[in-house]
Amino acid sequence: MKRRILLQAAPVLAAAPHVWAQSAFPSKPLRYIVPVSAGGGSDMLGRTVTERWGSLLKQTFIVENQGGAGGILACQTTMRAAPDGYTLMQGYVATHGTSPATRKVPYDPIKDFSPIGMIGATPNVLVVNSALPVTTVKEFVEYVKKNPGKVSYGSSGQGSLTHLTMELFKLQINSFMVHIPYRGIAPAFVDLISGQTQAMFPGLAAAIPHIRSGRIRPLAVTGLQRHSQFKDLPTLDESGFKGFDAQQWYGVVGPANIPAPVVKQLSESLSTVLNAADLREKLSVEAIEPQVMSPEQFSAFIKTDIARWTRVAKERNIHLDS
After folding, report:
1. What is this structure's pTM?
2. Which residues contact 80 (CB under 8 A, 6 or more apart)?
3. CA gap 195, 168 in Å, rounded
4. What is the pLDDT of residue 322?
5. Average pLDDT, the chain
6. Exposure string (b/e) for 20-31, b if CB count within 10 Å is 16 or more?
7. What's the CATH number of domain 30-121+248-315, 2.30.22.10, 3.30.420.40, 3.40.190.150, 3.40.50.1220?
8. 70 neighbors 94 (Cβ within 8 angstroms)
9. Where are the beta strands (DSSP E) in 144-283?
């Protein structure tokens, strides 16, 4: 009789530690890897979100900056970490979008990671030198076609989002513009303002000071909705470029095979943080609009973004390994 009771109780006893482990998460500080150097907008975003996230989970997030190699080092660190939910990374459009599309990276952006959720995105904005005689996207396209080979555009570098977004635009208008890559967005702005180049597709946050000073003229933003800070500025989608959804986005991923209950807890708590009104106001400094996504939605979003930029890279012969 005693043996029968013990045998019946065995499955319950075996499951007990597993149930306890799930209910106890998180029971220690979490590591949050930001794949850029400290001090920039992406770093601010990570620290702002994790401060609130940690308060909700009643645990501290230790933010670790791993800049360099376009996020490759951070991705490798994350994918090799234990899949227990205690190591997370702020994936973004470069690590899980443009880089895998334009070069060989030592990680699989889909298979090597567990998507947790989106944080938010800021659009790119089509801007032109203020002396250019255009005020709308339609007028700009007409100007480019009337001046073949005479219009140049700057970018923050080969394979960057600013580069690929304009290449996507060129594919859709079936016209040519000369690409001038720079080492960063700041020198690209210098030449745009001085008239050395005529157009660019920078992130909105970087463009705002120059737009408000009148030194450059905005024509439209990417994304499918107008931005809250520029409600009079149309989207490319409503300007005739349907589905033009290129954006500088940020999200949270962890190593592959994090247990589903842990992913669920992390995702739901992140969503609670992102829905707070004060966070939206805080992120407006970087023109970032919070976007809540489930792990499944975020996974689908990443796949779509990689496919978009892989197609552009293939059609425009942009291969940074060669």
Report:
1. 0.90
2. 255
3. 23
4. 56
5. 92
6. eeeeebbeeebb
7. 3.40.190.150
8. yes
9. 152-155, 178-181, 199-200, 216-221, 247-255
Q: Which helix (H) or strand (E) holds 123?
A: strand 113-123
Measured in residues, the chain has a length of 322
- Residue whose token pair is 């234990």: 82
The model's pLDDT over 57-66, given as tens digits with 9 standing for 90+, comes to: 999 999 999 9
Superfamily of domain 125-221, CATH level 4: Periplasmic binding protein-like II (3.40.190.10)
pLDDT tens digits, residue range 218-262?
999 999 899 999 999 999 999 999 989 899 999 999 999 999 999
Q: At what angle do helices 260-274 and 41-57 cross, to 10 degrees?
A: 110
The structural domains of the chain, with segments of one domain joined by +, span 30-121+248-315, 125-221
φ, ψ dihedrals at 89, nearest 5°: -135, 145
pLDDT for 295? 98
* Confidence bin at 285 (pLDDT 50/70/90): confident
